[in-house]
Specification:
By secondary structure, the protein is of the alpha/beta class. The chain has a single domain, classed as Rossmann fold (3-Layer(aba) Sandwich). It is 42% helix and 11% strand. It has a five-stranded parallel beta sheet with strand order 1-2-3-5-4, with helices on both faces. Strand 4, helix 9 and strand 5 form a beta-alpha-beta unit. Helix 1 packs across helix 3 and helix 5 packs parallel to helix 6. The structure holds thiamine diphosphate (TPP) and magnesium ion.
Length: 254
């Protein structure tokens, strides 16, 4: 990847954070933390990874503002909102918002593609680490492993925070990579889920087997507004008063 391309991707990330922030202000709601933690992953998927016949599902769709903004930039017509309802002609392949549902549905889609001899067409799904506290996640992996769904690509936004607290205080997910491996998944761990270079390298890892692949990206909840980073409060706090000023300052919004 050329430096100039990396610069373009970084510019896109800043632009998407700004647009997402302004949309939060306009709509009077802000799932800021989890939206900002997956910005670089989302851009890499949309700009580089997803191919024509691949499907994408955002399971953690409380963070759907930047996804809707990207889709609209690609010519789809979506209301910018959280908790998505299926609208395939506008790029929303699945209703999501209740945690732990996107991966089971993605698993079913990947299985259907396998049965139809379309295993070359991938199904990508972004899940949160909070969803790794849901039983449905692990049930899906049992099924994906049994049916050798190598077209299933699971992306974990590993920001280590859920709705009200850090995962380690609520329900720890120790040895997450080992856990996925124990469910017979290929695993790719990316230590910096905000570095385009690392994300692209991670996605480019190839495995010569029939197992599903899990990409675990270490991210920072609220990434991009230093004052808000790694603070559970910014999971879904409404932006008000001087916090609007702080956010705009960090994002360089005039
Ligand atoms: C089944 C279910 N339980 C609870 C909620 C309420 N809820 C919304 S987001 C969230 C947790 C957010 O943390 P995480 O899932 O890790 O997402 P991220 O950190 O990526 O924002 C919770 C408990 C929900 N949407 N669905
Ligand atoms: Mg989280």
């Amino acid at each position: 990847m050329k430096i100039s391309n990396l610069k373009t991707l970084k510019d896109k990330a800043l632009d998407l954070r700004r647009k997402t922030f302004l949309a939060f202000l306009e709509k009077g709601e802000a799932h800021l933390g989890g939206s900002f933690s997956m910005i670089e992953i989302l851009i890499t998927l949309f700009e580089i990874i997803l191919k024509k016949n691949d499907k994408f599902i955002l399971s953690k769709s409380h963070s759907s503002f930047p996804y809707c903004i990207l889709l609209n930039e690609k010519g789809f017509k979506n209301e910018i909102t959280t908790h998505l309802e299926i609208d395939e002609k506008n790029g929303i392949n699945c209703t999501t918002g209740s945690l732990g549902h996107g991966l089971p549905i993605a698993t079913g889609m990947a299985f259907a593609r396998k049965i139809k001899n379309e295993i070359k067409n991938n199904v990508y799904v972004i899940i949160s680490d909070g969803e790794c506290q849901e039983g449905t996640t692990w049930e899906s992996l049992l099924i994906a492993s049994k049916h050798k769904l190598k077209n299933l690509k699971i992306i974990v936004d590993y920001n280590k925070i859920q709705a009200l607290s850090k995962l380690k205080d609520a329900l720890p997910l120790e040895n997450l990579v080992k856990k996925f491996k124990a469910f017979n998944c290929n695993t790719v761990e990316v230590k910096n889920g905000h570095s385009f270079k690392s994300i692209i390298n991670g996605f480019n890892k190839k495995f010569e087997n029939d197992s599903p692949t899990v990409f675990i990206f270490h991210t920072i909840k609220g990434k991009g507004i230093k004052k808000f980073e790694n603070d559970p409060v910014w999971h879904a706090r409404k932006l008000e008063g001087k916090e609007i000023f702080i956010g705009k300052k960090y994002l360089g919004i005039k």
